[in-house]
Amino acid sequence: MIPAAFEYARPTSVDEALQAIAEGGDDVKVLAGGQSLIPVMRLRLAAPETVVDLSRVAELRGVRDDGDALVIGAMTTHHDVMTDPLVQQYAPLIAEATETVADRQVRARGTFGGALVHADPAGDLPAVALALDAEFVIAGPEGRRTVPAAEFFVDYLTTALEEGELLVEIRVPKLAGEWGMRYEKFNRVAQAWSIVAVAAVVRRENGHIAEARIGLTNMGTTPLRASAVEAALAGAEASPETIAAAARSAAEGTSPTSDLNAQADYREHLVQVLTRRAVTAAAGL
Amino acid sequence: MTQINVRVDGVTYTDDVEPRTLLVHYLREQLGKVGTVIGCDTSNCGACTVHLDGAAVKSCTVLAVQADGGEVTTIEGLAPNGGLHPMQKAFHEMHGLQCGYCTPGMIMASVDLLKENPDPSDSEVREGIEGNLCRCTGYQNIVRAVQQAAGEMRTAGNGHTSPAEVDTAAAPHVAAQQ
Ligand SMILES: Cc1cc2nc3c(=O)[nH]c(=O)nc-3n(C[C@H](O)[C@H](O)[C@H](O)COP(=O)(O)OP(=O)(O)OC[C@H]3O[C@@H](n4cnc5c(N)ncnc54)[C@H](O)[C@@H]3O)c2cc1C
Ligand code: FES
Ligand code: FES
């Protein structure tokens, strides 16, 4: 099928984009890589009055070093994120998770910001942003504001972005000390979305786990942190036994759905296995 | 209608399109480039894969207006003057197709993969074409074909990427300039 007719705007700056959104009528959609939006428009699940295409807004693309943080422009493609030397150096978890997203054609167009704003519960990057305590820089008619990852993902396909606003960039704090990271994704066929996935970020100190941050993909309507596991691991000895014991509480506080891919109780089991694997690898064991 | 300028298989076209026109429909219906096919409605199958500004993309998931100012290569422009690109030749020789529906997309994705990784392992080939579905072959001979082409292209030193001379008779309404 082809999308319903729409008005098309192609701004070249953030200010122009905000203006195009403001003038676009009741139902305006921002077009990033289009890898989620165009399919839903083809199926006529979305039929916006105006589409504001961000692909010519150069200031939204690229990765830069901002001292204590890595800053990733919202329009940086999955391909460019995963091959970026700064991302590989400071946030290899993002590169590792991005490599598992879709396929090379989708990664050539789909963007980091688009995947985060789309906020699909099975999307791989929201849980990663949550585990890394990333911050979201949002531009709107009233200026800019910054929202922490813990407040950005509000509900199923819903973020803290208000109407008329744009995601501009994502700030990923650089981590001090000895950190290990791992993304463990489970799906049955190539190119498929995660049935469950776990993003683990672990700081080691003298054979112990000083701090663990664990993000869960597809264990609820939003990405979640496995707080019980994080608490059990803080200060614990970095051994396979302690990690396995802590991982048993990975499903605590989650509310996974049952769908064609898996039942909820299967997901609750899977998240424990994947948490053990991800933390073990991130702890360097 | 929005005017676009786009170079497709070495020929520059200036055309009016509706913003909602998908690149694949523009290629097939306005330019007559029916070598690029449509296999799904969900961006999954990869049959529609073309190169846009040097990267493989699913042309059913790009708007024609987004290709404005860009350069597109389709399966029809992969090799000059009716010849075969080493990848096309390898699919033929290694029996990398049965019905052939997935083949244009498979070939375009595989050529893109080899640009980034000229000497892939079998599992890297499989991952490289994970965005392309084949309902016939079971993929074994596709992987063999990609490996054969990779070997040939490594020996030849570089890929045959020069755009073809294209007969625009199929799209007589289009003003084509070289
Ligand atoms: C076959 C296939 C398989 C896939 N598999 C996976 C997978 O395994 N894992 C995974 O995580 N993802 C997967 N995806 C989704 C992919 O990651 C998309 O790239 C992503 O979801 C959307 O990014 P986009 O840039 O294409 O955004 P678009 O489709 O352009 O936009 C998505 C939504 O976000 C909004 N938006 C985008 N950018 C902004 C911005 N800067 N400010 C405000 N709003 C914005 C749009 O209005 C729209 O509502 C898959 C997609 C396909 C087609
Ligand atoms: S037709 Fe484009 S992915 Fe199936
Ligand atoms: S040869 Fe028939 S779909 Fe691949």
From TrEMBL, chain A:
<dbReference type="InterPro" id="IPR016166">
    <property type="entry name" value="FAD-bd_PCMH"/>
</dbReference>
<dbReference type="Pfam" id="PF03450">
    <property type="entry name" value="CO_deh_flav_C"/>
</dbReference>
<dbReference type="InterPro" id="IPR016169">
    <property type="entry name" value="FAD-bd_PCMH_sub2"/>
</dbReference>
<keyword id="KW-0285">Flavoprotein</keyword>
<dbReference type="InterPro" id="IPR036683">
    <property type="entry name" value="CO_DH_flav_C_dom_sf"/>
</dbReference>
<dbReference type="InterPro" id="IPR005107">
    <property type="entry name" value="CO_DH_flav_C"/>
</dbReference>
<keyword id="KW-0274">FAD</keyword>
<dbReference type="InterPro" id="IPR002346">
    <property type="entry name" value="Mopterin_DH_FAD-bd"/>
</dbReference>
<keyword id="KW-0560">Oxidoreductase</keyword>
<dbReference type="GO" id="GO:0071949">
    <property type="term" value="F:FAD binding"/>
</dbReference>
<feature type="domain" description="FAD-binding PCMH-type">
    <location>
        <begin position="1"/>
        <end position="177"/>
    </location>
</feature>
<dbReference type="InterPro" id="IPR016167">
    <property type="entry name" value="FAD-bd_PCMH_sub1"/>
</dbReference>
<protein>
    <submittedName>
        <fullName>Carbon-monoxide dehydrogenase medium subunit</fullName>
    </submittedName>
</protein>
<dbReference type="InterPro" id="IPR036318">
    <property type="entry name" value="FAD-bd_PCMH-like_sf"/>
</dbReference>
<dbReference type="GO" id="GO:0016491">
    <property type="term" value="F:oxidoreductase activity"/>
</dbReference>
<dbReference type="Pfam" id="PF00941">
    <property type="entry name" value="FAD_binding_5"/>
</dbReference>
<dbReference type="InterPro" id="IPR051312">
    <property type="entry name" value="Diverse_Substr_Oxidored"/>
</dbReference>
TrEMBL record, chain B:
<comment type="pathway">
    <text>Alkaloid degradation; nicotine degradation.</text>
</comment>
<keyword id="KW-0408">Iron</keyword>
<dbReference type="InterPro" id="IPR036010">
    <property type="entry name" value="2Fe-2S_ferredoxin-like_sf"/>
</dbReference>
<dbReference type="InterPro" id="IPR001041">
    <property type="entry name" value="2Fe-2S_ferredoxin-type"/>
</dbReference>
<dbReference type="GO" id="GO:0016491">
    <property type="term" value="F:oxidoreductase activity"/>
</dbReference>
<feature type="region of interest" description="Disordered">
    <location>
        <begin position="154"/>
        <end position="178"/>
    </location>
</feature>
<dbReference type="InterPro" id="IPR036884">
    <property type="entry name" value="2Fe-2S-bd_dom_sf"/>
</dbReference>
<dbReference type="InterPro" id="IPR051452">
    <property type="entry name" value="Diverse_Oxidoreductases"/>
</dbReference>
<keyword id="KW-0479">Metal-binding</keyword>
<feature type="domain" description="2Fe-2S ferredoxin-type">
    <location>
        <begin position="2"/>
        <end position="78"/>
    </location>
</feature>
<protein>
    <submittedName>
        <fullName>Carbon-monoxide dehydrogenase small subunit</fullName>
    </submittedName>
</protein>
<dbReference type="Pfam" id="PF00111">
    <property type="entry name" value="Fer2"/>
</dbReference>
<keyword id="KW-0411">Iron-sulfur</keyword>
<dbReference type="GO" id="GO:0051537">
    <property type="term" value="F:2 iron, 2 sulfur cluster binding"/>
</dbReference>
<keyword id="KW-0001">2Fe-2S</keyword>
<dbReference type="InterPro" id="IPR002888">
    <property type="entry name" value="2Fe-2S-bd"/>
</dbReference>
<dbReference type="InterPro" id="IPR012675">
    <property type="entry name" value="Beta-grasp_dom_sf"/>
</dbReference>
<keyword id="KW-0560">Oxidoreductase</keyword>
<dbReference type="GO" id="GO:0046872">
    <property type="term" value="F:metal ion binding"/>
</dbReference>
<dbReference type="Pfam" id="PF01799">
    <property type="entry name" value="Fer2_2"/>
</dbReference>
